[in-house]
Please model this.
Amino acid sequence: MDETFIKGLYLGQLLAVVGIDGNNGMFLIAYAIVEIENKDTWEWFIQNLIVDLGIENGHAYAFISDKQKWLGLALADLIPNAEHRHCVRHFYNNFKASYSSLILKQILWDAARATTKPWWQCHMERLKIESEEAWKWLYPKSTEHWSRSHFKQHYKCEILLNNLCEAFNASILKARGKLILGMLEAEDGK
Model:
């Protein structure tokens, strides 16, 4: 799930949900154009998504985002049993603002890619040895949002990045500058 700015005469935000199929192909599930991104608009969007997809139990769904505050709050309220992951690339960008060495970057990514809790713990211990301050920044973060080792296993999905939405946003870049009806008529984002 992600949002992007609408450009042109009428400004706003485009909220989107992009899915991934069994062949790692991306497909657009739903989108909406809203005036502003906030908790109310995300709740409205997710409520419509719940109806459209017939979601009765959030245990069958995993969402990944760039850790937008309002989206996270809306998901927690409306689909509390769904897994909400945070894009590790965006997570790392916050980390590197204070801890920018290549070794710390590698350790963070190793911890994110770890598939078991003991391996995750091993990488966290390496981080603590390398930089206790970096470890203090990372350790209290909710691991179930960013490390494979803590993802629920029944999803069978190991995605760590929100690249699907980024690719969708890039594909509609030209269309985002058109009027709303023009956006809907645009072919291939032209």
The mean pLDDT is 86. Helices lie at 39-53, 69-78, 88-96, 102-113, 117-130, 132-138, 163-171, 180-185. DSSP finds eight helices and five strands in the chain. The radius of gyration is 18 Å.
